[in-house]
Design goal:
The complex is a heterodimer of chains A (460) and B (451).
Chain A (H helix, E strand, L loop, with lengths): L3 H11 L6 E17 L2 E19 L2 E7 L4 H12 L14 E2 L17 H16 L5 E19 L3 E20 L2 E7 L2 E2 L4 H4 L3 H16 L2 E2 L3 E7 L6 H6 L6 H4 L21 E4 L20 E6 L2 E2 L6 H7 L7 E2 L8 E2 L3 E4 L6 H6 L3 E14 L4 E13 L2 E7 L2 E5 H7 E4 L4 E9 L2 E9 L2 E9 L3
Helix pairs in contact in A: 1-2, 3-5
Chain B lengths: L1 H17 L1 E19 L2 E19 L2 E7 L7 H13 L24 H4 L3 H18 L3 E20 L4 E19 L2 E11 L7 H15 L8 E7 L1 H10 L6 H5 L20 E3 L22 E5 L2 E2 L6 H7 L7 E2 L8 E2 L3 E4 L6 H8 L2 E8 L11 E12 L2 E14 H6 L1 E4 L4 E2 L6 E4 L2 E9 L2
Parallel strand pairs in B: 7-14, 13-19
Antiparallel strand pairs in B: 1-2, 1-4, 2-3, 4-5, 5-6, 7-20, 8-9, 8-13, 9-10, 11-12, 14-15, 15-16, 16-20, 17-20, 18-19
Helix pairs in contact in B: 4-5
The chains are: A alpha+beta (460), B alpha+beta (451).
């Protein structure tokens, strides 16, 4: 994407004050976002993100600079300015830059940029109509469509030059139900690392109906009860519990500085026996996958927890130095505007032995969280919170009635030990995860699980 | 600047040639610095120079948008082609207009030249001192989560073929620290920040003390029994909640039937003590501006006055639909977004009682000092919220012990109606496209879930 000789000169300039590693990240990203309200397109924005980030290490210190200009003099100036934050003299020289070939594991069949905007809108309208037509109680429906193609090139002072391309497509339906002046909402937001074939193969009507069904169910629901109780969290996006409660605490970003409750616990029992958890950035065409991470390492399947024992962390190059451990292909960034750091990709609890009916029927009294909303965590204390988008009361082994407005709170390390049943129905949900290197696409996932006790915040 | 004018002329010419009747350029460029310190060393250092350019133009009577971060002549065709393709596919009925501007705008100065002269070594020393101070105050502070200084400069130009030609420049510095306190198995965190464009206002001792006191005061925190409790929402927590609900005041959301304030104009939506101000001319207001993102002059207004909803926030499109004047609240969070609506400096008007007086008056209840999960546990469409929270148990008008692992639940409108008292301690959150603040507020009660 940029002449190799220029790249070598920029890396040379970056190392001029004693840096022991330098990297250049080049990004060219074109995409479109379409927003539809009441069945009519409201806003359409398309454009191009373009920029170059330069990163320099010296021991544990790191420096980052970026610019939108790609001419040699601006890049060398930017590298020199950044290098001034490190004090010293040039100690290493960059090795020759060699091409590293990578295999494209996430095949794109239909390049979305070759599909007309009209056709994209047609698909959106299909989802709109099925949501709006679901029931008279549905008062408003929004549909958002997004696709982008991100081309990147990464070169570093260890002689690596590698290029990659990521195409992602996503559709989100939001429905609002109104009853007696009260409004509740529901949504469904599938996405993948695929081209327009993702939309062509997607059951648009189902996603529209599902968003509408959640909104209708919730507007007719009573408030959730409060207090400590068993909670059954359904498969798919329910995996956000592991993502928030534990996943962030297993990122080297917080482990390296011992700001995580999981620091120094490798080989120790941190979860109940039924829990095995994995972060796998290699799964073909999944939302959180990529061929290489954003510092050029191939992504890999990382076992985090195996039968309750802590097996590994997600590690980037810089934190790997601090921890004296190898990087795990987990270094990610939103764009050239962020230095990369350890992040999740597709993170999930592996399938267990129980089936769904058995989990419900063995629960005397508790909450069934069918769809989760988002959440957040304080990695220092491990305290998490997240919202239940669609919940039900369970009594005597039966799902009794829908309840709304529930929030789950607790501490990650306690929850992991209280997972007492794991289902056999693993599936994924898509989300955007925000952290220090920006907002990145991630899959969360799990089979249906039961946690013997969580604090539920409701209003009854 | 000369380069920009040359590029602008070329874009205007090309657009005219191809049949784009009215065209507007939105250009912004800036510089940002962010420094992190960990154990006395520079742990992270980020320097950025960036720019972006967006077009907005009328093609066959519909508005099309496009943007690029590759700001040069090679992008002209890309921008124009995208604009046309997008305009062709707009279906909404409400028309978006390009504004010709007014003769005179008020003066607003968001740029402090002294900030640009601060040496980098002073900034680095500042956070090194901040980290050292935080570790020194109390031996229970075992580690520092984040210790950051940052500043930035940005310049925005809005220029169109109807004659509008506006420029705005601003700069800002911020610092924050997150500290971790440990006592036995108990781990608590504390956080403090300061935003200013006057470097001399940054006092590391004050910021360190605030973060440390916050963390230490939470040690020994426990959950409490579920139930209804009288509540004081401390200023920072109240500001966070108002910020999360800010979209309900947007006329766009109201017209699209996505706001719980639909149909509530000129009606009572809150306690008589409640006045909500949107002041684009506030001193030290980091969202201050004499004009909005469409070039419309901004105005100060009470959105809610003594509990009555006076106005929604409008841009030209929503105002036209309602047959009124724009309130000057058109907003673009960056060149990547289309024209939306946002408050400027919005805050609940402070009363005259101190936090302590309000605590004494309440006698029994909970003071909420921090809420989490605002992007998920709060629904701006229904107004319902259920948020993880921390705070203090108040008994006999005094702080008794720290509380955590609880949730507070309610509905935003009910909470506004249940306001009993408003404090004198107005505090603002971190600035984004809006800058939102609140004093501490006492609320009749909220549902609390705990043990």
């Amino acid at each position: 994407m940029i002449n190799k000789k220029i790249i070598e000169n920029v890396i040379e300039a970056a190392l001029s004050t004693g840096g022991d590693f330098a990297e250049i990240f080049i990004e060219d990203n074109k995409g479109i976002g379409i927003n539809m309200i009441s069945g009519k397109t409201e806003n359409i924005m398309s454009g191009r993100d373009y920029g170059i980030g330069i990163r320099i290490f010296k021991d544990f210190n790191s420096v980052y600079a970026y610019t939108n200009k790609s001419d040699e003099s601006t890049l060398i100036q930017t590298a020199k300015k950044a290098s001034k934050a490190l004090l010293g003299e040039n100690i290493i020289s960059s090795s020759l830059i060699n091409n590293m070939k990578i295999e494209q594991n996430h095949r794109i069949e239909i390049n979305p940029s070759e599909i007309s905007t009209k056709k994209k809108i047609k698909a959106m309208r299909k989802a709109y109509e099925s949501a709006k037509g679901f029931d008279d109680i549905i008062s408003q429906v929004t549909v958002n469509y997004q696709d982008y193609n991100q081309k990147i090139a990464i070169a570093n002072s260890e002689g690596i030059y590698v290029e990659d391309e990521r195409t992602r497509t996503r559709l989100a339906v939001g429905a609002v139900a109104t009853k007696d002046g009260e409004m509740q909402s529901g949504s469904s937001s599938p996405g993948a690392q695929q081209g327009f074939e993702f939309i062509e193969n997607l059951d648009l009507e189902w996603h529209g109906k599902e968003a509408a069904r959640i909104a209708k169910t919730m507007v007719e629901a009573d408030y959730s009860p409060s207090g400590k109780m068993p909670v059954i969290i359904h498969n798919g996006f329910g995996g956000v519990i592991f993502h928030e409660a534990c996943g962030h605490g297993l990122e080297a970003t917080s482990v390296a500085k011992k700001n995580s409750v999981f620091a120094d616990k490798l080989g120790e029992k941190v979860a109940s026996d039924v829990v095995t958890a994995v972060d796998d950035g290699t799964i073909p065409n999944e939302w959180g996958s990529s061929n290489i991470d954003d510092e050029g390492n191939p992504t890999q399947k990382n076992i985090l927890i195996e039968n309750g024992i802590l097996k590994g962390y997600m590690i980037d190059k810089l934190n790997g130095r601090r921890m004296n451990m190898k990087a795990t292909g987990s270094s990610r960034r939103q764009s050239y505007k962020y230095p990369p750091t350890s992040r999740m990709t597709n993170t999930f609890i592996a399938s267990g032995k129980s089936n769904f009916d058995e989990i419900i029927s063995s629960t005397e009294k508790g909450l069934f969280a069918k769809y989760m909303g988002g959440g957040s965590v304080n990695p220092a204390t491990g305290e998490f919170n997240f919202a239940v988008m669609e919940g039900y009361l369970v009594e005597n082994g039966k799902i009794i009635k829908p309840v709304r407005g529930a929030t789950l709170i607790g501490k990650g390390i306690n929850i992991l030990k209280k997972i007492d049943m794991v289902g056999d129905n693993l599936s994924f949900g898509q989300g955007m995860c925000g952290s220090s290197s920006g907002s990145v696409p991630v899959n969360v996932g799990q089979p249906t699980i039961r946690v013997s006790e969580i604090t539920v915040g409701g209003r009854e | 600047m000369r380069d920009f004018n040359v590029l602008k002329a070329k874009i205007y010419n090309k657009a005219k040639e191809i049949g784009i009747k009215e065209l507007e350029i939105y250009y912004s460029q800036g510089r940002n610095l962010n420094i992190k310190v960990f154990e006395k060393e520079i742990d992270g250092y980020k320097l950025a120079e960036s720019e972006g350019l967006a077009l907005r133009g009328k093609y066959k009577d519909e508005m099309g948008y496009s943007y690029t971060e590759k700001v040069d002549e090679t992008s002209i065709d890309f921008l124009i082609n995208n604009l046309i393709e997008n305009a062709k596919n707009i279906e909404r009925e409400d028309k978006e207009e390009i504004f010709e501007g007014v003769k005179e705008y008020k003066e607003v100065n968001n740029f402090n030249s002294s900030l640009e002269k601060v040496e980098e070594i002073e900034k680095i020393n500042f956070i090194k001192n901040l980290e050292e101070e935080a570790l020194k105050i109390d031996e229970r502070i075992k580690s520092i989560q984040d210790c950051v200084y940052g500043d930035g400069f940005s310049e925005t130009i809005i220029s169109n073929t109807k004659g509008l030609d506006l420029q705005d420049k601003s700069n800002l510095a911020y610092t924050y620290i997150g500290v971790v306190a440990k006592e036995g198995e108990d781990i608590q965190s504390g956080f403090a920040y300061k935003v200013t464009n006057d470097f001399s206002e940054l006092d590391y001792k004050v910021i360190a003390k605030e973060a440390v006191e916050e963390a230490i005061s939470k040690l020994g925190a426990k959950s409490i029994k579920s139930g209804k409790y009288p509540i004081i929402m401390r200023n920072n927590a109240a500001a966070d909640i108002i910020e999360a609900f800010a979209s309900i005041f947007s006329a766009e959301r109201v017209q699209k039937n996505l706001s719980l304030l639909n149909g509530k104009l000129n009606k009572k939506v809150g306690s008589e003590k409640l006045t909500l101000v949107d002041d684009p001319y506030m001193k030290k207001g980091y969202a201050s501006s004499a004009f909005d993102s469409e070039g419309v002059p901004t105005v100060e207004k009470n959105i809610i006055e003594n509990g009555v909803l006076n106005t929604y926030l409008h841009n030209l499109k929503t105002a036209l639909k309602d047959g009124i004047e724009s309130t000057g609240n058109a907003s673009r969070s960056s060149y990547k977004s289309s024209i939306g609506i946002s408050p400027t400096n919005m805050y609940i008007k402070p009363g005259n009682k101190s936090l302590n007086e309000i605590m004494v008056e309440m006698e029994e209840g909970i003071m909420i000092t921090d809420v989490q999960g605002l992007h998920a546990g709060l629904n701006p469409i229904s107004g319902d919220f259920s948020l993880s929270a921390q705070g203090y148990k108040i008994e006999k008008g005094k702080i008794m012990f720290p509380v955590n692992q609880i949730t507070i639940s309610g509905n935003f409108l009910d909470m506004m109606k249940d306001i009993i008292e408003i404090g004198d301690d107005l505090k603002f959150g971190l600035p984004s496209s809006a800058y939102i603040g609140s004093p501490s507020i006492r609320i009749k009660s909220l549902d609390v879930a705990g043990e």
